[in-house]
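testing teh design pipeline on a random one, pls ignore if ur not involved
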């Protein structure tokens, strides 16, 4: 398999796994932490807002089956790109929306996609999602992995924090 990785932060990492996990060409989706200054942070450390990390997902994919552009398009539809202070009920820096790019090609695709979204007229507010260079990605503790499969009821409750309603109203068009 031809492999590449993509890293996206869009609020709680539990809510970011399933939309990617369901796609052909995705080998794995790992919940974790990136963008901070503390090596191997724990969930508790990240939640303390002192490590600089944000919750994110690292996606290993086959670009001959699903393109990075397609992944970016899926990413947008999971988030409120006008909210830089977190996502839905998840507030604070560890939940900020970021597309972490690992190459010039990914940066160009992400920036073009962000510009297309900004020019689409879908949102009255500016698109504030950041595009940053990928940093070390630290997998989260095992109980965070595949959360939607392990804890379907709790996952549904998390989705009711505004994400699903936002997706249904803004992204169904």
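output:
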């Amino acid at each position: 398999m031809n492999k590449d990785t993509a890293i996206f932060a869009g609020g709680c990492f539990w809510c970011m796994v399933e939309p990617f996990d369901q796609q052909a060409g995705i080998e794995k989706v790992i919940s974790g932490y990136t963008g901070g200054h503390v090596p191997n942070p724990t969930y508790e450390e990240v939640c303390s807002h002192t490590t600089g990390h944000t919750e994110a997902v690292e996606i290993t994919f086959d670009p001959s089956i699903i393109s990075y552009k397609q992944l970016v398009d899926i990413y947008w539809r999971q988030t409120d790109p006008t909210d830089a202070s977190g996502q839905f009920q998840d507030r604070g820096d560890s939940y900020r929306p970021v597309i972490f790019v690992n190459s010039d090609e990914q940066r160009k695709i992400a920036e073009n996609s962000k510009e297309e979204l900004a020019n689409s007229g879908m949102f009255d507010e500016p698109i504030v999602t950041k595009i940053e260079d990928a940093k070390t990605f630290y997998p989260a503790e095992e109980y965070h992995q595949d959360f939607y499969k392990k804890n379907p009821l709790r996952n549904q409750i998390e989705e009711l924090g505004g994400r699903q309603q936002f997706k249904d109203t803004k992204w169904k068009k």
